[in-house]
Amino acid sequence: MTGTTVDINTLSVDASAGGLLTVGGGTTTSATVTGCNFSGGVLTMAAAGASATNTVATCTFTTKNTVGLNTAVATTVTGSTFNTTAAGTGITSSAAITASGDTFTGSATTTVADYGISLTGGTSTIGTSTFTNLYTALTINGAGVTFNGNTVTACGNAASPATASLVVTAVTGTANFYNNNITGGLYNIISVAANANLVNVMGNTFGTNAKAASSADLNNTLNVTRNYWGGAANNPASVTLVAGTTAGINYGSPLGAAFTASVFATSGTSLTAAATVGVNISGVAGATSFGATALSANPVTPALPSNVTLIKYFDVFANGPATAATVDFYGTTASPVTSTTGLYFYNAAFGTWSQVTSATLNTFAGYCEVVLPGTPGPSFAQFTGCAFALVNILGVSPVIQGTIYRANGASLGGVTLTLDGTTRVTSDANGTYQIIATTTGFHTIMASETGYRNQTQTIDVTDLTATYPLDFMGDNGLVPNAPNVSFVLACINKWS
Fold first, then answer.
1. Which residue in 147, 295, 310, 358 is a FRET match for 181, CA 20 to 30 A apart?
2. How many structural domains are present in the chain?
3. Over the range 70-99, which residues count as b (16 or more CB within 10 Å of their CB) and which as e?
4. What's the pLDDT tens digit per position in 25-39?
5. Do both 301 and 250 map to the same domain?
6. Whether 406 and 388 share a structural domain
């Protein structure tokens, strides 16, 4: 079936009626197949010169010793069900696919070779899908993939020929696996034949699986670091070498607690994950990979200090190690970053949580920022895997507060307030700020913003339980570096 656009809805294709529907080819530039039922039939998305908007949605495939969806063009597959209980494969693709919200179910028997997805080309993205009782959930041979947020249960085969839940024969580009929950595997979680240096298995939750990972690559090490194995008792040895080589599998830095979200990067200098993990990383230099995980519980034995309440635990890393990095930690809707927010890191050298006093609070944007290395704070060596805790500090009062104004009387948000050259906060959208003074005596506060001249004021704090008003306005208001005539006239009219 061809045409410039093809739209197929609620069609049933049965093996007894020929069982083959080919969509695309010729002049087809888009094809959509929605709500169709393939009972033993095969849907083939054929190649076309400009076909780039192919979609398969809410379809049901029941394979019978064949393939459900066979595609040679970029295709999006959403909300579809693939039953391979009579043997076969849910999807085979020699081009990039984007699959989300799909269900793949096998026969739950070692005598039937049923597969979820087989990729032989392109760079695919597979997420939020479930794979259950399959001989192999995913096979990769000459393709790249991001496999993120999937649930893989009771896959693999321990009988001859044994196979893993995830099989990588050869990689083009990279194969990244993260945020997945893989449990009940009958053999290895993942098996890699070659290109182990292009495969990253990080930030996953592994339940009870018969085996961990295997690699036949004699020249490269497979990265299976920073995963949660259910507790220290289940963690594999840090490194497992292939006999007679220096290559093998790196299981290092297992996560100390369950997590809600994880993300990493193997290239570039920044990572934006505030919406998922609650962390943004920028300005990274010297690292081969970096990332962050939002943890559900304390990942180490020592408890946090008694004078804090938890906002969120994190695990942040930069392997290399890094020579530069900036990390922004975001609060939650229930516990946003305020003037009483603080940041702690687990100092493994002393076996305790230590405060990162160099951290800067940006209450305007809602994050706590640390520029590494912090002083005190984690060193770059520690940052190869470091637990952080974003907290609210109890027992102190935001004793100095006020509003930042331009000299012409307009309030100014996003201004950095620095107390005694160290503690920093940022004014909110209305120009208001709060900052904590932890000791009595005279304190200096400097207001600074790009494009404006710095303004400094001094205040005498005599009581830490009191609130001290301190506005930056009038003569202490912020003045542009190059004020124009209208600004000057506004100042004269405001204050004369």
1. 310
2. 3
3. bbbbbbbbbbbbbbbbebbbbbbbbbbbeb
4. 555 567 788 888 888
5. no
6. no
